[in-house]
Specification:
The chain is of the alpha/beta class. It contains 15 helices and twelve strands. The strands form two sheets. The chain has a seven-stranded parallel sheet, with helices on both faces. The chain has a five-stranded parallel sheet with strand order 10-9-8-11-12, with helices on both faces.
Length: 383
């Protein structure tokens, strides 16, 4: 990446906690550590800002002013010009100062926010902005939109294979996954971690880290599956649900309390710096959603040596590798059967070793940064 000036951007960084924001934070830091000329552009600041980080103004998606803007633009076809919902408004308002900051002397803009990518890619094609724009596809956009980007990063090989027959002429696409810092996320002292979180040493702990909602993340399915598991395993089982509060969170907590009582713990908005310790305190990681693009939490769990329990899809099977036994979660019992197998301590210990090795071999920072460097070089060679 010598002689390249790289911009990594995320309008939600520091005020939204999702995979997109974590990806931007992690990638910029990793590039900075290997000596790349990189700047991280973010929508908010908390605490001190490093010299290679910049905070840009935007209308944040949950602010009253943004809601007032949407009340007008929503009636005026705002979806056509990036003002169709709060997230689009945040991206559009962030894109203008971002363009002013990078238009002259940056070579590459790498983002996962789809509307920012579309706006800046359009300006590049018109000769009004120098950096070439790579969109990391992590938000489940339709093929009709993906065809509009000049440089497209898929997060799994199967996504690229599926897209190849519909991609636009001249479009470059790559398959480069998210990555995990395997030095930071690693197996640790289980007893110490459990003491820090107040978790009984004898408990079998199933951890889920996802937005606390029913839609997509299917927290209600997770709770009901765990209720079934406790009937066979017994009261030593403990379910921990860690994630950001959503509109459905209160309803989900109420369901959990009525069905599981004190065998459920809900942790809202856990500081990411504390996540390694939480993974180290768990025995199994659970993901109840039927489909995910490339969830960073699964890579963090693998790197900490946790077996994965999740739905059986091509992407989730690839992510899991030898670290679990995915099943169909569209029907009851899909998670329960996985947990019953993994409740065997000897099997769990073996799977844990495979999980860690799989994370290091496939998703470690060193391995994926090499792929990103090759992608950047291909983009810069493109005529």
């Amino acid at each position: 990446m010598a002689n390249l000036k790289i911009a990594i951007a995320s309008c939600g960084l520091r005020h939204i906690r999702r995979g997109i924001e974590s990806w931007a934070d992690d990638l910029a830091l990793a590039l900075h550590r290997v000596g790349a000329d990189v700047t991280l552009f973010q929508g908010s600041a908390t605490g001190a800002v490093e010299t290679w980080q910049r905070t840009l103004p935007c209308w944040r998606r949950f602010e009253p002013a943004t809601a007032r803007i949407l009340s007008v633009t929503g009636k005026l076809g705002g979806w056509r010009y990036g003002f169709g919902n709060e997230y689009e408004i945040e991206q559009s308002s962030f894109a203008l100062p971002l363009w002013k900051a990078i238009r002259r002397d940056y070579d590459i803009l790498h983002v996962q926010d789809p509307w920012i990518a579309r706006l800046l890619d359009g300006l590049n094609r018109k000769g009004l902005s120098r950096p070439r724009v790579i969109i990391g596809h992590g938000t489940e956009e339709p093929d009709s939109l993906l065809r509009k980007y000049r440089y497209l990063q898929h997060l799994a090989p199967v996504y690229r294979e599926q897209f190849e027959h519909v991609k636009a002429q001249g479009q470059l696409s790559f398959a480069v996954p998210n990555f995990v810092d395997t030095d930071r996320f690693r197996p640790g002292d289980r007893q110490t971690a459990r003491a820090a979180w107040g978790i009984p040493e004898e408990a079998l702990v199933i951890l889920s880290a996802a937005a606390l909602k029913k839609h997509h993340k299917r927290g209600d399915y997770l709770i009901r599956e765990f209720a079934g598991f406790r009937k066979t395993f017994g009261p030593r089982a403990l379910l921990i649900m860690a994630g950001a509060r959503e509109g459905e969170t209160a309803e989900l907590i109420q369901l959990g309390a009525s069905v599981l009582g004190d065998s459920l713990r809900v942790l809202e908005s856990v500081d990411r710096a504390k996540l390694p310790s939480l993974y180290q305190a768990a025995d199994i990681f659970a993901l109840a959603s039927l489909h995910e693009m490339m969830p960073i939490v699964t890579l963090e769990a693998l790197s900490c040596g946790l077996p994965l329990s999740c739905n059986s899809t091509p992407v989730l099977n690839w992510i899991t590798g030898p670290a679990g036994f995915p099943e169909d979660l569209s029907v009851p019992g899909g998670l329960t059967r996985q947990w019953e197998r993994l409740s065997d301590s000897a099997l769990r210990a073996s799977v844990s070793l495979h999980a860690r090795a799989h994370a290091v071999r496939t998703f470690s920072e060193t391995v994926v940064l090499a792929q990103i460097e090759q992608m950047y070089a291909s983009v810069m060679r493109d005529k």
